[in-house]
Amino acid sequence: MKHIYFLLFSFGLLAQSQKEIYLASTKAYENKDYATFLKLSNQLDSLRPSHPTFSYNLACAYALNNKLDKAVFKLKECLLANAGISFEKEPDFKILFDTDEFKQLVDLKVKLNERITTSEKFIELSEKDLHPESLLNLKKTKTWLINSIRNKKIVSFDEKSGKCIDWLTDEKLFSVFAMKADKNERFLWITTSAIPEMKGYSKDLEGKSEILKVDIETKSIVKRFPVQGNHVFGDLVINKNGDIFLSDSGEAMIYQIKNDELSIWLDLKKEAFNLQGITFGKDENELFIADYLKGILKINVQNPSERNWLKLPNDVSKKGIDGFLYSNNSLIVIQNGVKPHRVIQLYLSNGLIVDSKIIDCNRTEMIEPTNGIIKGNVFYFIGNSPWSFYDGKFNLNESKINFPTIYKYNLNAN
Prior knowledge:
The chain has six helices and 25 strands. The chain has a five-stranded antiparallel β-sheet with strand order 1-22-21-20-19, with no helix packed on it. Strands 2-25-24-23 form a four-stranded antiparallel β-sheet, with no helix packed on it. A hairpin with a 6-residue loop joins β5 and β6. The chain is globular. The longest helix is centred in the first third of the chain and has 15 residues.
């Protein structure tokens, strides 16, 4: 889901003010006016956190201004987000070359690129161009459901053969993103948006999104919540009272559906950029939400003004969190906006993150992990979403992708 909006942050589509600051910063660099280069690089990094060019330039600017500790800190931040960057012979870091801190960063790069394979393959699905994003298991009927970005539907699949059968189709359906069932499994709530990757997309559909309430027994849509504009409801969570909380990737807001009425629950546009996964803590008094650029925000549900960005362990990037679930006083995190991709478990104590464990990292067969569910003590997740295999006209290159594959990891392995 993040690709839709992450593309807006590419240099070609940056806000005009950011373009102007960037050009001014490069001019200052070329003129060896390193003080101005640092000032402008700092400004860019505050406007667009975790931008690969802006962050790296800021690390260089710190080094060129003899601010060595800050240079090391920022360079490490860049490395955690992209362990493929070639910084070892960067002339701007010459002042750091012989320091222990720089050598530690070189060693860290090697460690971050290690291949870790803790999860195992669960099932391969039969519909190659499905392009799944979310997964669900209905306990009452023992039914596995998975969505389709490309084919605008929900399918069920057999957990032994992987055979897919259409479960919900509708001629007015857009790309299906998130889906969750209420606690009694009477209704399925799904989010849909019209995007160019879906079949049948046309310019007149741009900006259209819907949240749908589906009767699980009859597989019929009983209520639609249409919205227009820069909205993609990428994830949702439902509390025990049946209230739905939705993350909006487009406008950095959390919406709520209560008593079948849609409203804005919390406006985060001034402090967040690209909201992704959303999940409750143990007792539903805390709401955790991931921002693709800034990390993890913890919110007091009863008093939303009481919220804070969680500090992550020193070896974990705050960038690129997509899939996001709570389990037994820990957060299961899928990071597909970092290189290499990682699946991590973050351990909580008193609402703070105190430790971490890598479940998977740098698995070549996992083209892009996205989202998953926890069933019992097992974490199931989609391992190879094909976002990167669409061409400039949004045609999916099926010759380069594998059949959709779901992986599983036993949380009791800890």
